[in-house]
Amino acid sequence: VQSALQALYPPFEATAPTVLGQVFRLLESSYHGDGLCCLLQFLIPAKRLFEHVRQAACAPYFNCIFLHEGWPLCLHEKVVVHLAPLNPLLLRPGDFYLQAEPCEEHSARITVKHLSHDLRTVEETPIPEAAYALLFTNEWLEEINGDRARAPLHTCLVATENGIAPLPWSKIAT
């Protein structure tokens, strides 16, 4: 598990407390402590998904040096794509977060999670595979907001060892 996560969230010494904490929460809540089941049904498919997403996001910047080696999944110690749900009480209007989650057997997807229109529940919007190439761009968020008939999303919640922090999407997409 650690080696799979180490490749996805570099520098792992900075992201490990956050990522491993999310994995342990997921392991207990969704897999009842069965680490092998979690690895096979979610973490390995998520690793393939993240590799695909990273490739698609980085392709336009071929031969460029990235400010953060883990981009787009993380920005140094800030985890952008979460492995477990965040506390819904942390969401405010305009906030959202990205979460990988299992879907179908032995596959994973990324969903956008944000407050519902009535501000009482968390809405989930699965991101289609065709959108992965644009996912970490300002254009992607503009398209998401274009489909919404309410307040636009603008702030992504990222996780650190010290908790959850709001970050303008433009800081992640740049």
Task: Give the termini distance in whole angstroms.
Answer: 30 Å
The count of DSSP E runs of length 2 or more, i.e. the number of strands, is: 8
Helix content: 25-40%
Radius of gyration: 15 Å
* Nearest-integer average pLDDT: 90
Overall morphology: globular
Compact description:
The chain is of the alpha/beta class and 174 residues long. It has 5 helices and 8 strands; from the N terminus they run αααββββββαββα.
Structure, explained:
The protein has 174 residues and is an alpha/beta fold. 37% of the residues lie in helices and 24% in strands. It has helices at residues 2-8, 12-31, 35-58, 138-146, 169-173; strands at residues 74-75, 78-79, 81-82, 95-103, 107-115, 122-126, 155-160, 163-168. The strands form two sheets. Strands 3, 4, 5, 6, 7 and 8 form a six-stranded mixed β-sheet that branches. A two-stranded antiparallel sheet has the order 1-2. A hairpin with a 3-residue loop joins strand 4 and strand 5. The two termini are 30 Å apart. The model has no long low-confidence stretch (mean pLDDT 90). This is Rho guanine nucleotide exchange factor 40. InterPro entries: Rho_GEF_signaling-related (IPR052231). It comes from Aptenodytes patagonicus (King penguin).
